[in-house]
Amino acid sequence: MAGLGISRPVMAAASLGVAVALVVPRRVWRWARLGVTAVHESGHAIVALLVGRKVTAIHLRADSSGVTIHYGPGGRMRRMLTAAAGYPAPALLGMAGAWLVEHRLLRLWLVVLLVLGVVNIVLWIRNAFGLVVMTAWVGGVIWLIARGTAGIDALVGAVAVWFLVLGGLRAALELPRAPAPSDAADIGRLMHLPSGLFKAGFILAGGAAVVAVAGLLSATW
Known about the structure:
Blueprint: H1 8-23, H2 26-50, E1 54-60, E2 66-71, H3 76-84, H4 88-102, H5 106-124, H6 128-147, H7 150-173, H8 183-191, H9 195-220
Antiparallel strand pairs: 1-2
């Protein structure tokens, strides 16, 4: 943190504070959520590919929602796994980032974010607004890799970690109740169970990720 001349406790508080400022205020969250949505849809796409389906497009929308279009073998388990992959994706990416930050692999964490953005642009994003969002993502990460100092990398890397886990948790809390369409509702139909059970599962997973990240970053700072 010498690159910024800021002590570790101050850096820790600053990174958490910036992330909270992105996630909590409603007006800011409306736009910041696009980052969480991009990771959410990437989770759907990656698992769809892993279970043998083909991904044709991801669309990111100005209302901060998104959709992943895929097709292929339609067994219940494959559809359920694909539907279930979205909400845990930001938490899993955030925990991976926290592990990299803990081990001082800050540049590698930025490269992971860069690769995710490039993969989305090249393979999946197929609407103009989504391309603008992901181009801004990639451009920002490239600038950090090229121009950022160790202190800036540490601050931004920690902010990204907190933003992903806190944003993923807020997104899960905002899941609409049935019969409104949602991933939880889709899984509920496939499993013949109330969608609220799966919303609760997403929330618990998101909360667990926040606790895990707090433990990892507290050791780092």
